[in-house]
Design goal:
three-stranded mixed sheet; three-stranded antiparallel sheet; alpha+beta
């Protein structure tokens, strides 16, 4: 849920993702975005809770594009522990992957829906591990 909510929201702006709405440190129920001395996070600098990419956070412009590819890369993994080899679906998103244990397809509309269909095509039996989110009480 964090990636689906925070990743797009941190780059949103009335002009459409121009990053000037970016805030380096976001605080729940924050009532002001100001230069702060002293600052509760002293290692991040006095401008850490202000909006924009300058003067100290230019790395955000170079790194923000890594979020979605890293999320996509983390959806499906292989489990390589002896006696527990198989395929693991650890993030809920539409995806497919071919592994040495077989091919897996994940069909879901999450986070807009709460159902998923996982299909595995394997030449021999394999374990399938599914991460069940803590909020999924009836899973």
């Amino acid at each position: 849920q964090v990636a689906y909510n925070a990743l797009p929201a941190t780059w949103a702006s009335p002009r459409g993702g121009d990053m000037w709405a970016h805030q380096y440190l976001q605080s729940v129920n924050q009532i002001k975005a100001i230069k702060a001395i002293p600052h509760v996070w002293p290692s991040d600098g006095e401008f850490a809770e202000t909006y924009g990419i300058s003067p100290n956070y230019g790395c955000c412009t170079a790194n923000f594009n890594q979020g979605w590819p890293k999320l996509a890369n983390a959806i499906i993994h292989t489990v390589e522990h002896p006696g527990h080899e198989g395929i693991a679906v650890v993030i809920w998103a539409p995806a497919s992957a071919t592994t040495r244990f077989g091919h897996v397809d994940v069909e879901t509309s999450y986070p807009f829906g709460d159902e998923a269909v996982v299909t595995v095509h394997a030449e021999q039996g394999t374990h399938l591990y599914l991460r069940i989110p803590g909020w999924a009480a009836d899973a």
